[in-house]
Design brief:
Layout lengths: L11 H6 L4 H8 L25 E5 L4 H6 L6 H12 L7 E5 L6 E4 L2 E4 L4 H18 L3 E5 L1 H8 L5 H4 L3 E4 L2 E6 L2 H6 L3 H21 L7
Parallel strand pairs: 1-2, 1-5, 5-7
Antiparallel strand pairs: 3-4, 6-7
The structure holds uracil (URA).
The site of uracil has 12 residues, from α4.
Length: 217
């Protein structure tokens, strides 16, 4: 990597040190050009939720629906996630939802926009926004949804399949990794779909217990 030019620099750390609020960060992120993804994405999709939420759920990147609507997890994966959150007995007021990468990475296929996994450079360029969200929300527990979010925080050798649902220390935070809700959507066999959905719910229950709340009945 070369030395970053000003247009490639993420302004979040400086803004944070100057006392910026979440709203100010979200507004500044709209102009972010720290990597090239802003060129093809419709808009930046910043995190959403209460400022002192005890749980922060971290996805990979906005999808097609999120890119159009400007909010995380409003598409099909979001609907799996919100059902799982409810089934785990977690209150929506306890959840701040965000993504590691805040622009949609996609490639055209006919009239469709196909999701593309963000590359390491996109994660690196975007991570200061997540770090700023963490510094301001200070959640008790982070839930990483899928491999991209888990590996962004816990390292490239982290395997969600092996270590999901276990509490891990990450700096001052406790992190629980789980599958990405889109894995439930991708499963073609009903049994696999159910098994994945149940494991997502179970890991969310673990996170809920870690914040010291009993799952609601
Ligand atoms: N997938 C994600 O990881 N995040 C979203 O916001 C939507 C889909």
């Amino acid at each position: 990597m070369g030395v970053a030019t000003p247009s490639e620099t993420n302004p979040a750390p400086e803004m944070l040190s100057e006392g910026a609020s979440l709203e100010e960060l979200a507004r500044a992120a709209e102009a972010c050009q720290a990597c090239e993804l802003y060129r093809e994405a419709t808009r930046v999709v910043f995190g959403i939720g209460p400022k002192s939420a005890p749980l922060m759920l971290i996805g990979e990147q906005p999808g097609d629906a999120e890119d159009q609507e400007g909010e995380p997890f409003v598409g099909p994966a979001g609907s799996v996630l919100s059902d799982a959150i409810e089934e785990a007995g977690i209150l929506s007021e306890d959840v701040y939802l965000t993504n590691v990468v805040k622009h949609f990475r996609w490639k055209p296929k006919g009239k469709r926009r196909l999701h593309q996994t963000p590359a390491t450079r996109h994660v690196r360029a975007c991570l200061p926004w997540l770090e700023a969200e963490l510094a301001l929300v200070v959640p008790q527990v982070l839930v990483c949804l899928g491999a991209v979010a888990s590996q962004a925080l816990l390292g490239r050798s982290f395997r969600v399949t092996k270590d999901h649902g276990k509490a891990q220390a990450w700096g001052d935070f406790t992190v629980v990794a789980t599958i990405h809700p889109s894995a439930v959507l991708r499963a073609t066999k009903p049994d696999d779909r159910e098994r994945l959905r149940a494991s997502l719910v179970e890991d969310l229950v673990t996170a809920q217990q870690l914040i010291g709340k009993k799952p609601r009945k």
